[in-house]
Prior knowledge:
The protein is α+β, with helices and mostly antiparallel strands. Helix content is 31%, strand content 23%. Strands 3, 4, 5, 6, 7 and 8 form a 6-stranded antiparallel sheet that branches. Helix 3 crosses helix 4 and helix 8 runs parallel beside helix 9. The longest helix is centred in the first third of the chain and has 25 residues. The radius of gyration is 31 Å and the shape is globular. Keywords: Hydrolase, Protease, Serine protease.
Amino acid sequence: MAxxxxxxxxxxxxxxxxxxxxxxxxPSRRRRTSRDRRVGRLLRGAAVAAAIVCAYGxxxxxxSGSQRHTAVAGGSVLDEAxxxxxxxxxxxxxxDDLDRAAIEGMLRGLGDRWARYYSAREYDDVEGxxxxxxxxxxxxLGDDGRSRVLVASVQPGTAAARAxxxxxxxxxxxxxxxxxxxxxxxxxxALRGRPNEPVELTVERDRRTRRFHLVRTPVTAGDVTVTxxxxxxxxxxxxxxxxxxxxxxxxxxxxxxxxxxxxxGVLLDLRxxxxxxxxxxxxxxxxxxxxxxxxxxxxxxxxVEKRTVTDPGDTGTPLVVLVDAGTASAAEIVxxxxxxxxxxxxxxxxxxxxxxxxxxxxxxxxxxLELTVGRYRTPSGRNLxxxxxxxxxxxxxxxxxxxxxRRARTVLRGLRATLPDRD
Length: 423
């Protein structure tokens, strides 16, 4: 939930204000007596007191009341400030830039770390990514809480995957420019572009700098990867919850030719999954649940919404969910619901802990505000924001990824052993 901070407004004089001066004639000087000085002090004191009373009473401490109201009546104070800055600042700046700076300043005032402002074109790129159709290099990005942008996951078959970019790589440069001080959105925007355009990606891995020369290509939906494992098990890797993800997961669980249903169990890999669409997360969890709650959504100023299973899913196949510090948001909804409903064993390291939901709000010019509008809770009522999910079986984040997969297969064998024999 967005935390509103009270703004402290301090009024202080500006010692460098330049004022126009005018000449006045002064009376001839004469020698002043002590009585004159006392009378003068009394008169000055009375005059100052009267001036203060009149100033506050008439509202003209910093400009006349009528002038102030006239300025506001002709437009907002923001409009007035933008006009002054655009017309008088030493450095030229356009109104569009000023509007964006003002909006982003208001968002910072919310204290909402997930609040974003997108131009119409920028948001088209965001929507393209969520629908699984965009032009880029095939990366999902996240942050580590220390102002560093990380590779959260790499979509198989993309330029980044072919070049050898790995989850956990720290992005230090794009296109030859340092990304120091950039946020996730800024880096993502720099990596997207027209098909067949080259872009250089610089990362830090194991304290060594690595440079990748990538070529942007059209990227289609491919955030679900299915791999058949020994002992009739299946790994379903979900890189992000883009549109259609839930349907693809359900198809992989219920079986598809020629391999059919994974009788030996499912490894649902959510490692490095930064989230995505809540509807797709609910659909994914539903693929493993019979009915009942998946997540509770608590929007601001509206009734609590309970999201339930969309269509009964597989409840008998052994299930293990792999998570790590890059598992966030919608991915935590899935892991949290399956754990709370006693449907899965969670293996890996503690998840990110993002328990908030953002919604886009379209403005009149086509630009978009994305604001935190509520929190979600798991079926047992847990708020994961800033806490995350502690796995049932912990595997240190320092261990290679294959170690968690090995442990997961061992747990699957144990789960299979507890199942009744099938005739």
